[in-house]
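Worked Example 4.2. Read the sequence first, then its structure tokens.
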Amino acid sequence: MAPKATSSVRDLQEDKPSFGSRFLTDEADVWSQNAWDHVPPPDDQAEAIAISLAKQRSAPVPDEDKQKYNATPARHWDNFYKANASNFFKDRKWLHLEFPELVQAAQSSAGPKTIVEIGCGAGNSVFPLLAENTNPELTIHAYDYSSHAVKLVQTNSLYLSPPCGTMHSAVWDLSSASLPDGLEPGAADIVVLVFVLSALHPDEWPQAVSNIYKILKPGGHVFLRDYGRYDLTQLRFKTGRLLDDNFYIRGDKTRVYFFDQDHNAPPGCPAHPLFAISQLGVDRRLIVNRKRQLKMYRVWMQGKFRKL
């Protein structure tokens, strides 16, 4: 794992709901809350972005090291989960607020439903759903390309004895050329992707999107949340971390890409014929350290996409 200073920035507040009701209407109130929703960037943000990107581009990752970082990404995530177990991410109960279709699928009267989470990590998204599930016909599949993450899922008490419904977890790389064993094409009603596509190399996106399309039923949905362009995390990267435009290597050797709504948007953008956009937006939040009088501007992408 990277030094604590890096990790605290890396995932600060990313496990919180994106659409709240804390609106900053009077700048004098800024220090009265820990976070404010939908706050536009400050007037000097463009200058700060330019300065940060110029420094990063002045000393990118050397070409001879790029292949090393891109060769075995799963191994670096294994190391991450070995170091952090299931303690790093909080349970993502906010998913139920952002994507109410998940809650609907877990209702006793919902009938046969299949939810697939790709990049499940330690299960912080699927276990809150499984704990509240009352649908005996709900099937949850949880995949990650980190074998250690999957081991954490498989040893969880909820996985071993689900209160209702069934759950299966296995190692699978979203960018691989085949679907995971035991999952038939067109099986999923919902695919969940939370901070997943950003961990892939941009060259891997076409195969990843193709796999998502194959997994979903016609009319099935993709629920996505990921990093947005010029998020605080991106601007805080120092020299020697830039792999490619908007694509970085962290201190723990895991990779991260920062998406833009108009350029390099996640699957479902108008240029992609496989999915229709149900929702796609930028979530901007101001995180406040009241003790140190610091303002931190976070940016995330969130979307819903429907298989055509």
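Now turn to a second chain, presented in exactly the same format:
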Amino acid sequence: MEKATALLGSLFGRGVAEQDAAKVKELFVYPIKGCRGISVPFACVSPTGFRWDRQWLIVNSKCRAYTQRVEPKLALVQVSLPMEAFTEDFKPKSDTFMTVKAPDMYPLQIPLFQDTFQRIDNISVWEWCGSAFDQGENAANWFSTYLGKPSRLVRFDTESEVRPIDENYARGYKTMFSDEYPFLMISQSSLDTLNKHLTESLPINRFRPNIFVEGCEPFAEDLWQTLRINGLTFHGVKLCARCKVPTLNQETGIAEKEPTETLSKFRSGEILFSGKKARGKVFFGQNLICEESLNPKACLGKVIRVGDMVHVVKKINSSAEAAT
């Protein structure tokens, strides 16, 4: 038995086949890209990430995506879904809605059943361009009023569109309207370490993770190449280079200097990788893909829950070896 364990350890990691490394503390889903997330007790895994995650997008008059980078007021937009929408067997009906709220705005309801919506072509998110379902004049007027400029709300067309992930990091995987990858993991200890360097502690919502874990060493998630959560296999594919968004106070929408200024002192590309690699970037969190997402039948009914253990199967020796 000991020989078998040692053999598995040599194949999958450093010394042991599988280690209990952390526990899921919180799970977050962000239905509308750029708007506030929803903390949920469990989340279903789909071929593109958590169900409902970044399925909707706000675009300008040229059909280009709005994010908090250019529209920080999106940080104040609250989104809610009925809790049954997160269950494994939920099917939208004509009377189920996503509710959107913002300061000085009336509540907006968006049907989860999308049978009556029209397609809009040339919707663009970063390098991707495709069609999406327009969510109607009521939603368009609501976001146009709130942002003070022509806007429309669209929904990803899961039936006919595919947005692939960079094949240099994860060949064959896909996502909807997320920046790059379907999952982002951050640990409580990493946040705690950052906050020790700050005069004012920051909450986790500054960093918009999907999976927030606890019980591991600071920045241990940098090293996790293969991990398992509730029978699902995840792969860490790329450290998360942080943009302007973590500097935006999610309660006010106002930009601040931190945490970028402090992260640059111990989480910059120059420091982590000792050279020109990723120069000028700061890193916080690990981007993940889920192996079962390659096969829709394999991820059908698969759920991650708060309290689930994170088992590490394979890891690297240091952050310097991580992909960026």
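Notes for the reader: The helical segments are 2-12, 137-147, 188-196, 260-266, 269-273, 296-299. Residues 1-16 have pLDDT under 50 and may be disordered.
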